[in-house]
Design goal:
Order of helices and strands: HHHHHH
Helix content: 55-70%
Largest sheet: none
Number of strands: 0
Number of helices: 6
CATH class: Mainly Alpha
CATH superfamily: Ferritin, core subunit, four-helix bundle
Distance between the termini: 65 Å
Radius of gyration: 26 Å
CATH topology: Ferritin
Structural class: mainly alpha
Shape: elongated
CATH architecture: Up-down Bundle
Bound molecules: fe (ii) ion
Length: about 210
């Protein structure tokens, strides 16, 4: 049977492309690939942890608001915004990679009304230490999976956690110096009002 001209051209082209050597750079070109479902789930879980941290700091801010420690309340409110930014950066990464962002339910947060300023610093440090372990685990997961893009993002958070823990140990140190002095506590409360409020900005692609 005679082949139609178009089929002949197609066959000739297929033969040529099958027999020509591949260009030298062919193996180096990878299309941007979404990260695996397992890693996507792990990032979505960490987004929830960041949002729960935000919720936790907001609860602390409310406690100090009721105690008329407005500087502490402000400081923890800024911390709330910082955690939301962490979650947004992770969402941005998933979104840039074409992965799914899922907003999981948050655990309710309740705080005792009579927490001291030192209680807040101690609880904050504990929360950050737990967050650091999760961030390290996620970094390790990305590394093991050779997901270099996620590894780079997590390297940013590894560094960020050093600063996060340090901000709470600084607060603990200052409160230790103040001891039982109401004047000292009120002076620190005034100082904490100076913590800059972050502005909501379009998110950058993050890296270390
Ligand atoms: Fe965080
Ligand atoms: Fe944090």
């Amino acid at each position: 049977m005679m082949l139609k001209p178009i089929a002949t051209v197609f066959l000739a082209f297929s033969f040529l492309t099958a027999t020509l050597p591949a260009p030298a750079f062919a193996g180096l070109i990878h299309p941007a690939a979404a990260i695996t479902k397992d890693l996507e789930n792990a990032v979505n879980t960490q987004i929830r942890h960041e949002m729960e941290a935000a919720y936790f700091y907001l609860a602390l801010a409310n406690v100090y608001e009721q105690q008329a420690l407005f500087g502490f309340s402000h400081w923890f409110t800024v911390q709330f915004f910082e955690e939301v930014t962490h979650a947004r950066l992770m969402m941005k990464f998933l979104s840039d990679k074409g992965n799914e962002v899922r907003l999981e339910s948050l655990q309710p947060t309740s705080m005792k009304k009579d927490l001291t300023a030192m209680d807040g610093a101690n609880l904050g440090l504990q929360a950050e230490e737990a967050q650091t372990s999760r961030i390290h685990a996620l970094y390790e997961l990305a590394r093991t999976a050779k997901a270099y893009d996620l590894e780079t993002v997590m390297a940013f958070f590894v560094k960020e956690q050093v600063q996060e823990e340090a901000s709470f140990t600084d607060l603990q140190q200052k409160l230790k110096i103040i001891g039982n002095s109401p004047e000292g506590l009120l002076a620190l409360d005034r100082d904490l009002l100076a913590r800059p409020v972050p502005v909501v900005q379009p998110l950058p692609v993050i890296g270390p």
